[in-house]
## 1
Amino acid sequence: MADFRVSDIDQQIIDKVIEVGNSTTAFTRHYEDNEHEFPPEQLEGEMGFDQVLPLFFKRKPDDTPMMTFQMLLSIARGSTNGVVRGLGLAMPTGRANGLGNAALASAGTKEQVSKWGNLFLAMSITEPGAGSDTKAIQTTARLEGEEWVIDGDKIFVTDGVRCDGAVVWATIDKSAGRAGIKSFLVEKGTPGFDLVRKEKKLGIRSSDTAAYSFRNCRIPRENLLGGDETVPVGGGSASYRGVMKTFNMTRPAVASGGVAKARGALDFATSALAAEGLEVDWTRSHAQRSATEQKLIEMEADTEAATLSVLHAAWLADVGLPNNMESSICKAKGGEVCRTIPQGAMELLGGMSISHDHLVEKYLRDGRISDIYEGTGQIQRLIIARGILGYSSEELT
Amino acid sequence: MISFKLSDEQTMIRDSLQGFAAEVLAPKARAIDEAGDMPAEVIAQGWDFGLIAASIPEAYGGGGGDRSCLTNAVALETLGGGCASQAVAIMAPGQFVNALIDFGTEDQKAEHLTRFAGETPVAAALALQESQFGFAAEAQRTTAARSGNGWVLNGEKRLIPLGDRADHFLVLARGPDGEGLGAVEAFIVPRDATGLSLSAETGTQGLKPVPKAKMTLNEVVLPGSARLGGDAGIDAARLINQARVGAAALAVGVSRQATDFAIPYARDRVAFGEAIGKKQSIAFMLADMHIECESMRWMVWKAASLLEHNDPGAAKAAVLAQDYVRRKAVKIADDALQIFGGHGFIRDLPLEMWLRNARALTVLDGPVSV
Ligand SMILES: Cc1cc2nc3c(=O)[nH]c(=O)nc-3n(C[C@H](O)[C@H](O)[C@H](O)COP(=O)(O)OP(=O)(O)OC[C@H]3O[C@@H](n4cnc5c(N)ncnc54)[C@H](O)[C@@H]3O)c2cc1C
């Protein structure tokens, strides 16, 4: 039966994740100011995921299903004040888990998965001239004997500095549009593959973002993910669809990152204002509330709605139902609240909210990315509009 | 455990009401709204689903099913997706019945619930709204004072659904003890009580054909047994939040209906040589409408579910659901009208009616309950 309560053990896990997340708060500002300095494996006083893990064994089969629960944990983790390691998309289990790993898992052959599964893989699609319009990428791959030769420029590669390699999109037939696009696994150290720079960013500074260049970069023929070298006529190739399917799984996770920043900013504002004697009285009607109370209620409602949309998309995956529309819905909602809620929190807190004395300003900076990567809010709306109107991607652009 | 799965029974109720809403309620909605009159036959047809009697305990002749706020939210959303006004006329007695099930003493249940378990519709209503602008349920101006073993009520209640025909009302009033919601009491008041007068309202913008009455309470003397819950009284927050979430559930239905009506129009209507649905300003409006229909539904489900379990988070969830739906439902109905341009403004189409209904449902704390 539909239910929105979490069990005691799940609440304990959530609380513990928050405790772990806050354990490095003393170092957060340092790594904001020194954005290209990677924190050491263990910071002083840092609690690890090993503190959380034992609690997982106490979960019962009828507790919240795993993917849904992970979204709750991701929101909890991302709302904390400590040093963020990577994007915090996955639980910090210590195991490599980049966006490229998700692509490998869904588009790779069995042999490829077992061969590269332990590498930390970034995902490299975006180019200086093509972001949202992924089918317009210009990087090429041409087969020469038993090697693919890759040429082109890539930007905005998350984890691109720290990763062991990347899943790189390139076209093997420009005239074929989307059908010509394939993904290739390129390992670090391959001649012709260069790390050009690390970007300086508004937020998520502990997540590195790289620019790559590929010049006559040769990789083995079997590095084409999925192994299908054909270019299907008239439409999307299986590997392109495979990657798009990956997004159905990663979008709720990315959305949860946006919701987390909304949650963090809102929690900060709520307790900071409570300390000033400004608290929501939940028994008061609309007409009896102060403007501050009403604003807090609206922010709470918006954050809750986004949270529920994320949980819904994840839950559908948990029970094996299709979630392509829902993963776009939750990404759109996460992308909305990651912007509006930190902005609103600072509005309520006033001038001191910009100060580096406090971390609330960081939520605005860190949250903002969630409406950009993995499909902007506009792209999510395109997907949703096509879905409800029954339009193809050619009919509604 | 977090789950979005409806029970088999809830799914069955939703499916059967969906047909009723689409095939019976929706086709008549415009004509009924224009006439400003609710046909008795609509109420009787709705009554036949047994939605109100379902959770009356068997001891009082009811179905003995679970008293489920979530089931009611699902039913209300579905009925609201056919016609909100007819849905209110069908479900308004549920406000009285649900409150009795939740808070009534054994005597009160025995006296009143049996009547609602039969095959013919019985009208009863919650008298909540008052005349003042900025009405707040926790700041009732209607008062209940103790007098001997009984009570004396004074005040004015407005916009009472089915007020023209209800035999009994559940009147909310500020009692002598407590503050805010803690002071709010509910009284079972018969229509013929001395000092109680009823008159028809002048008319309303939204929920236009729902019969509505104004009630004046002038030194209405009631026995001690009229206080709902007896000495224990009621949990007014829970009762009022059930009404708020009920209205929100209906508003989700209206929003869904307006969105589903606008989608095919956007595909068909051509302007500047192509379907308006191919223009992003319209397509994105529709995408947002769809996004918010879904989001609103989960907000309502969560609030209803927590209310059902009497969870400590229920009051907050209800306020959040009401706030969210208040902002989104009106915007959706309004945007749907915009997609139809001038045609949306003409009363041949239901767009303007849905805007009025969405506005009514999101400023009232009621007129149905989960
Ligand atoms: C920190 C960071 C990390 C990233 N990580 C990765 C990564 O790991 N791998 C990777 O491949 N990429 C990554 N990206 C790239 C990201 O996915 C793109 O920035 C994003 O897809 C948008 O592309 P763009 O920046 O080229 O903007 P553009 O596509 O040029 O869009 C510009 C604006 O136009 C709007 N727009 C575009 N098309 C349409 C349309 N059809 N209808 C309406 N509006 C439209 C967009 O919404 C946006 O507002 C990352 C970016 C950042 C900033």
## 2
Amino acid sequence: MTRYAEKDTAITGIGMSEVSRGATKSALALTVDACLEAIADAGLTRAEIDGIATWPGERADGSGFSAVGCAAVQDALRLKLGWYAGGGEAPGQYGAVFNAIGAIAAGLCRNVLIFRTMYEATARKTAFANALLKEGQRQAGPFAWYAPYYTYAAALQQALFFNLYVHKSGITLEQVAQIPINQRRNAGLNPKAVYRTPITLADYLAAPLIATPLRLFDCDVPCDGAVAIIVSRLDVARGLRNPPVRIEAIGSSMQYRNSWTQLDALDTQAQPKVAEMMWSRTDLKPADVDIAQLYDGFTFHTLNWLENFGFCERYGAKDFIEGGTRIALEGDLPVNTGGGALSAGRLHAYGAVHEACTQLWGRGGERQVKGGPQVCATSTAGGPLAGAMLLVRD
Amino acid sequence: MHTPKPPARIPPAVDMDSQPYWTGGKDGQLLIHRCADCAYFVHPPVPFCPACEGRNVAPVPVSGRGRVATFTINHKQWVPGLPVPYVLALVELEEQADVRLVGNITHCDPAEVTFGMAVEVWFEQLDDLWVPLFRPVERL
Ligand SMILES: [Zn+2]
């Protein structure tokens, strides 16, 4: 029988820098804070870190999207590594984790430091940093097809997908609003969240319309911050400080056309096959999941993941989130318990992993889900990118 | 008060495969790569047919008609002078629905755009390129 390599790995430590709308220190300094915290949390020393990974690797384009890469962290911490990798062509942001699983299985390393650094809040103070388009410059790559059509931000492509989803599912604005309202309530109990003041349905409806049907509170919040996690070989993990958070199963497939225009199913995006792959690698079922940290670059992604993970039927998310009780901290399936990227800050799926471990280790403080959650489903990304992980407390 | 100039469209980087798509409009033609062996349209263009593995794939003029697969009405003024609202859409080509073309829907009120709406191509020159845009098909 196939032994899936992820089952021999676990998350053993987590770290998070200050998270803000304008940092008091450099992107590298934030990263060092997160990394040192994660290493110490695992009960390890710098000398025991023998692998490093990040997604999408350093992009020195001034956008703050990924201001720090492996080389800068390796040198800052003077790490001595058996393996390293940073790159964007992967199953979404969790590609770095999936790469680390492979490297551990290959015997290249035992304790991998994985980090993600965002510096978009500071970048936007000086430039229109989220522009997909730069004046006076011909647009190459997959976004060339969008270039001449005033497609200034990822929000527009997501709005194309979201609008079709609304059209097909019949979801109402009032129902969609439950996602950001729930997450802001959770963020109010998270001292590190960027925005903590509750929002109401009236606030959601009154917020600016970006591109139909996307409104301001459907979009995540650019921030400055870094997250680090340690992924260790399971036998090593069992000798460390925290109960291992085992990586029970992953979904990393590319079964659909990997395209921002020709994606097979515009309204479900790349997620269904990725979720299917994750469930095929475990005996656990959606009903076994205690909490979910679902990608929320836009509210639409969270709705999509609820359906694609099988927590509800296709186009059933509208009923699942109706009134917000089922996804609340006290509900059947608490979702994005720390406020998520919509309220806690756009830490780009690594805020979600950090929160998953926080909850599974019972460190959630005021926002801790009752009953000692053991199983968390996590997911990342939208459009043609998707990755999924099922995390289980050992 | 000074009104900022509307921003220019940003040209795509063009290579040997995509050049016909972005320049066919000079002769009023929308050019899409098609396999000469099995007639499958290959878009984005590449000289390989994923349907029959044929290598005889070349641009041919198509009807320029299609249907709105999905769209969004953009309201945010991303840069100074950007006229809003405007419609961004993915259009399914009449000849083959899995060829999806990006474009703005013009010549109508954004509020009139609907899913499945019949549209036809027109072209706007941008430097050495002709950008395909779409407008509602005239009702007869
Ligand atoms: Zn063919």
